[in-house]
Amino acid sequence: MDLYEALYTTRAMRRVRPDPIPDAVQARILDAAIRAPTGGNAQGWRFLLVDDPEVKGQLGPLYRDCIKQLFETIYAPRIAEAEANPDSPNSIEFGRMHRSALHLAEHFESFPLLLFGFVQLDPTGSSIYPAIWSAMLAARADGVGSTLTTVLLFRFEEMLRIFGIPRDEDWKFACCVTFGYPTGRWGTAPRRPVHEVAYRNRWNEPVGFEVPRPLWPHP
Amino acid sequence: MDLYEALYTTRAMRRVRPDPIPDAVQARILDAAIRAPTGGNAQGWRFLLVDDPEVKGQLGPLYRDCIKQLFETIYAPRIAEAEANPDSPNSIEFGRMHRSALHLAEHFESFPLLLFGFVQLDPTGSSIYPAIWSAMLAARADGVGSTLTTVLLFRFEEMLRIFGIPRDEDWKFACCVTFGYPTGRWGTAPRRPVHEVAYRNRWNEPVGFEVPRPLWPHP
């Protein structure tokens, strides 16, 4: 697969079929992930794949509690805004994401594969999320959709217990990525254009070029 | 460029030529970056490109102070280990990285382009480092090398002042990525293999497959 196609069309895929992901595909996903950089090449990471229904069954209720908490706290202002202005483009986009996130939570146990990332001595996340994103890009090349979630952080202690992670090794939870063959279509997700979120040399100074439309696919 | 080639050969490139990066390449780098996912598609990010010698001149001494502090504190145990066992593979690899990091610091001002990433409301880093890694992968497709560094975090306050970043907006520094056309060769960096850093269903349980050699290039 072309790099640009992967970068532009790997969007969150929250509706998937229950079909299992073959071991060969899982190996390609993880082998691509570990090529990503880490500070000082320390590789203080662990990648925990979950496909056991019993383990997923323990995680599902936790995950749904976390999503409930997320929408009642951090996302509460956006829900209020969407209710106040239901027809604005932001509200429509947020509503779509909200329904999709609830769908993922309700079907958590039916995702065929989950990837949990853990990391040591990485205060910023810069030594784990490049690898996680590489995993998601490599999955895309095999037609496997993914969604990156961090919401289980709300129930970190129970996660440690479920997975049997030693408390004295100071592993930090980075993410849970759901994987599955998507039912929907790949596509480029809506974004604010580059010239609205980029500066040059000083804050608020124009970056010097405009990119009104996605540069891929090439015209 | 093939996705796998990018994922497997985008390693830290700390020795570069001073040639400028054309605007069209910069636009491709940033337009690829903003396709990456963020929690709730919030896109609470800013990408600050730096190519002004005067601004780089203010940052260079700060950067060198930070690198000095890094090797005197966080990396001190690894330096001690490398001095105690200079011929071990770990020590040789660490020494190579150390010299390369010092080279980057000494030549900070001669990198033609720097990218500073800032983010709001992203406690984990999961909503900025995928975009930064996409920028580095897109640069790779244009033959531009990059190195992801976070060490300027040690001098966050001075960075805010140099860039004129408003203090009341709660922007968090994510990284400084150096860009430039490399003098060295692209290649796959050494990593611990997947089966040593991956588990299945529970901590320390074998992942179920072994990947003794990188899966790319395909045999």
What topology, given as strand order, has the largest sheet of chain A?
A: 1-2-4-3
Please name the fourth-level CATH homologous superfamily of chain A.
NADH Oxidase
Order of helices and strands of chain A: HHEHHHEHEHEHEE
Say how many strands of chain A there are: 6
Biggest interchain interface, per-side counts:
A-B, 87 and 87 residues
SS content category of chain A: alpha+beta
Q: Which consecutive residue ranges of chain A, at least 5 long each, have pLDDT under 50?
A: none
Shape of chain A: globular
Task: Describe, in plain words, how this protein is organized in 3D.
- 2 copies of one chain form a homodimer.
- Chain A is of the alpha+beta class and 219 residues long.
- Chain A has a single domain (3-189), classed as NADH Oxidase, CATH 3.40.109.10.
- The first copy, chain A, has 8 helices and 6 strands, in the order ααβαααβαβαβαββ.
- The first copy, chain A, has helices at 3-9, 23-33, 53-72, 76-84, 89-106, 129-141, 156-163, 194-197, and strands spanning 45-50, 113-119, 145-149, 172-180, 198-200, 202-206.
- In chain A, the strands form 2 sheets. In chain A, strands 1-2-4-3 form a 4-stranded antiparallel β-sheet, with helices on one face. A two-stranded antiparallel ribbon of chain A has the order 5-6.
- In chain A, helix 3 (53-72) packs antiparallel against helix 5 and helix 3 runs antiparallel to helix 7 (156-163).
- Chain A is globular, with a radius of gyration of 19 Å.
- The mean pLDDT of chain A is 97.
- Strand 5 (198-200) of chain A pairs parallel with strand 1 (45-50) of chain B, so a sheet runs across the interface.
